[in-house]
Amino acid sequence: MRAQRNSSRGYSLIELLVVMAIIGILSLITVPQFISFQRAGKMKSALRNFTMDLRTARQKAITQNVWTRVEFQPATADSAAARTYQFVQSSDRGATWTALAMRGGFGGNTSNVIGQGSGNIKELEKAVFFSWTNFTDTDANGRIDITFLPNGTVTIPTPPANTPPPPAGSLYLRTLWNVRNNQITITVSPSGQIHTDATHV
To answer: Considering only the top CATH level, what class is 15-199?
Structure first.
C-alpha cells in the first residue's frame, strides 16, 4: 500500500493582494475616525478639567472665606500662553494676591502630593486654548480674571449696551482641529454656576 503524501499549498499572490487591499480600505476608513475620536476626547477632557478647576476655586473661596481668582490669557491661535491658567487667592478682599495651590498644578511645591504637583498653574490639553472672553483684566496684569467671592458669587463685568450673545461671564475653549464641536462656550453665572455649550465654527 502506497503512503499518502500530505501537501500544503501557500497563498497565491492574488489572494495576498486582495487581503492587503481590504486592510488598506479598512484603514482608510477607521484611522481618520479614530483620530477624530481621539481629538474630540481631548476637547472633552480639557472642558471637564477646566470646569472642575473653576468649581474647586469657588469651593475654596467658600470654605476658606477668601477671594479666589482664575487667571488666563486668551489668544486667536494656539500657544503655551493661551493654554495656561493659574490660581491666586486674597484674604484681604483683593488688596494682595498670593498663589493658590491646586492638586495637579505646577509652578510651586510639588512634594505635597505624591505623583502630582501642587502648584498654582495648570494647562489645557494640547491644541485646546482660550480664544475669547468677555471677562476683563481687573488688576491690569495682562491676564483675564474670574474672581470668586466667599459667598460663592462671581464678579462679572457689565457688558456694553447692545452686546450680542454670548452672555456676560463667558469664555471660549477652542481647538483648530477639525472636530465636530471645536468650540465650547463656558458661561459662569453671577451666582457661580457653570454652564457649557459646544458648537462648530
So the answer is: alpha beta
Residues in Cβ contact with 191 at an 8 Å cutoff, skipping those fewer than 6 apart? 152, 153, 154
The domain ranges of the chain are 15-199
Residue-wise pLDDT tens digits, 124-167: 999 999 999 999 999 999 999 999 999 999 988 877 677 777 88
Q: HSE-up of 155 (CA within 13 Å, CB side)?
A: 18
> Which residues, in sequence order, are bridge partners of residue 154?
148
Q: What is the pTM (predicted TM-score) of this model?
A: 0.81
Long-range Cβ contact pairs of 153-161 (< 8 A, separation 24 or more): 153/190, 153/191, 153/192, 154/58, 154/188, 154/189, 154/190, 154/191, 154/192, 156/188, 156/190, 159/134
C-alpha distance from residue 97 to each of 89, 131, 141 (Å): 5, 25, 12
